[in-house]
């Protein structure tokens, strides 16, 4: 298998399923089963999930709230999603640990890099909650940072589209998909893969990203088996 340790990045919106807000339990259950399949392959799995289905700091700022205050609220939203995903994974008998960048003793362990790596080595899935613990940083940035800290082999960015296109394929039927693209080409073409901070972290640390459709059953396992699913971004 090509990748021994991965970081899976999921958007908060992906948990909504067909809902307009919140968490779709059926979608959670499907994700848990997909993740269980690759866990059974012996892959070490870390996960970062966004909070956009519950709250976004940027939206708070647009409504007149202080950005820092809004971002901390967004971090709490990621913790709600992380706890929901943890419960779904444990319901299918996968040992899971939730580590938070903000201290929350009653519900999560504090993020300590060595502890996170030890959990992974013991076959536990590690969920990183509360972003980086700092305002002005997205969960994409948190995913890149944590992936580098735990020496992950790749970031798998699960989205609703099956890779990176020349333009939004949901709006432009003639948009063309890239099977593979370099970090520099993404910069030059102005493509939206992750926010710039997260993307630059990956480039500078030679950490590849695979963007793929998480909502198609079996795709996650196909990626792990090195099938040509999604788009690979590399140096």
Give a nutshell description of this structure.
It contains eight helices and eleven strands.
What do these coordinates show?
The chain has a single domain, classed as Acetylglutamate kinase-like (Carbamate kinase). The protein is built from 8 helices and 11 strands. The chain has helices at residues 25-39, 57-62, 67-91, 113-121, 139-149, 183-189, 196-204, 219-224, and strands at 5-10, 44-49, 96-100, 109-110, 125-129, 154-159, 164-165, 177-178, 180-182, 209-213, 231-234. Strands 4-3-5-2-1-6-10-11-9 form a 9-stranded mixed beta sheet, sandwiched between helices. It has a two-stranded antiparallel sheet with strand order 7-8. Helix 5 runs parallel beside helix 7 (196-204). It is globular. It starts with a strand and ends with a strand. The mean pLDDT is 94.
């Amino acid at each position: 298998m090509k990748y021994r340790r991965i970081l899976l990045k999921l958007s908060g919106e992906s948990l909504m399923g067909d809902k307009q807000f919140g968490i779709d339990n059926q979608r959670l259950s499907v994700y848990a089963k997909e993740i269980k399949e690759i866990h059974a392959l012996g892959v070490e799995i870390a996960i970062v999930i966004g909070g956009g289905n519950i709250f976004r700091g940027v939206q708070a700022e647009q409504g007149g709230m202080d950005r820092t205050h809004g971002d901390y609220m967004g971090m709490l939203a990621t913790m709600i999603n992380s706890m929901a995903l943890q419960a779904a994974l444990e319901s299918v008998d996968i040992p899971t640990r939730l580590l938070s960048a903000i201290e929350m003793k009653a519900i999560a362990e504090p993020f300590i890099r060595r502890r996170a790596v030890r959990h992974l080595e013991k076959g536990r899935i590690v969920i990183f909650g509360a972003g980086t613990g700092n305002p002005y940083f997205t969960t994409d940035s948190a995913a890149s940072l944590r992936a580098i800290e735990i020496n992950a082999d790749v970031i798998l960015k699960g989205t609703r589209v099956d890779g990176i296109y020349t333009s939004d394929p949901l709006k432009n039927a003639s948009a063309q998909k890239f099977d593979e693209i370099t970090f520099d080409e993404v910069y030059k073409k102005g493509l939206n893969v992750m926010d710039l901070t997260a993307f630059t972290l990956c480039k500078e640390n030679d950490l590849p990203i695979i963007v793929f459709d998480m909502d198609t059953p079996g795709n996650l396992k196909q990626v792990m088996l090195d099938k040509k699913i999604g788009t690979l971004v590399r140096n």
